[in-house]
Design goal:
31% of the residues lie in helices and 15% in strands. By secondary structure, it is α+β, with helices and mostly antiparallel strands. The protein folds into two domains: 2-102, Roll (Ubiquitin-like (UB roll)), CATH 3.10.20.30; 105-230, Fumarate Reductase Iron-sulfur Protein, Chain B, domain 2. It has a five-stranded mixed β-sheet with strand order 2-1-5-3-4, covered by helices on one side. Strands 6-7 form a two-stranded antiparallel ribbon. β6 and β7 form a beta hairpin.
Length: 234
């Protein structure tokens, strides 16, 4: 089948403002959007810029807006979009460096702010810190985050104010807050207990829809809100 890719282009060294370039490409219906972008870059326009790495939905580097919705380009089949015209744009809320490449540093700054690492000051055990299957299951969902930023950059609250810590940061805080082995929950909850923390979330569910790992993000944010409100982690 033939498709037309309308691709967002912007090179700050040459362009005064962004524009869309169209490319007509012959594809197989089972080709991924990333395959089509790779073909364009390799055979039609070598200046096209986008991030990619593993191409298997693990690294999260190729998050972009495809027909108005955040996806990983490596996970979207052409046939599943149901149209012969595909519009590809960078994710929103982060400044564009070139084409689909955005500045991820503000996103990672928010991620680092919630202390996304294991905190435990007890003496180191001889083997490992034991945990029951039930305790592990409590936070299993939020361990799946690959930091693609698809959730945060689909959030209207983040678009409105970049100071909002964002869904991805809260998901990663959740992963440790509810880990029975961790001792940093109170500090993380204090960090998130402000107008740019969890309370900036208005339960729109865009983040949950956008997540390529199918994490129940809005649910996780609600659980963090409840922990702050009740002072209990259960």
């Amino acid at each position: 089948m033939q498709v037309t890719l309308k691709v967002y282009r912007f090179n700050p060294e040459q362009d005064k403002k962004p524009y869309f370039a169209s490319y007509d490409v012959e594809v197989d219906p089972t080709d991924r959007v990333l395959d089509v972008l790779e073909y364009i870059k390799g055979n039609m326009d070598g200046t096209l810029s986008f991030r990619r790495s593993c191409a298997h939905g693990v690294c999260g580097s190729d998050a972009m807006r495809i027909n108005g919705r955040n996806y990983l380009a490596c996970k979207v089949l052409v046939q599943d979009l149901g149209t012969s015209t595909i519009t590809v744009e960078p994710i929103l809320g982060l400044s564009v460096i070139k084409d689909m490449i955005v500045d991820m540093e503000p996103f990672f700054e928010h991620f680092r702010s919630v202390l996304p690492y294991f905190i435990n000051d007890d003496p180191e055990p001889a083997k490992e810190r034991l945990q029951s299957p039930e305790e592990r299951a409590r936070f299993d969902d939020t361990t799946k985050c690959i930091l693609c930023a698809a959730c945060t950059t689909s959030c209207p609250s983040f678009w409105a104010n970049e100071q909002y810590v964002g869904p991805a940061a809260i998901v990663n805080a959740h992963r440790f807050i509810f880990d029975s082995r961790d001792q940093g929950a109170a500090e993380r909850l204090q960090i998130l207990n402000n107008q740019f923390g969890v309370y900036r979330c208005h339960t729109i569910f865009n983040c949950t829809v956008a997540c390529p790992r199918e994490i129940e993000i809005t649910k996780a944010i609600g659980e963090v809100k409840k922990a702050i409100a009740t002072g209990r982690i259960d």
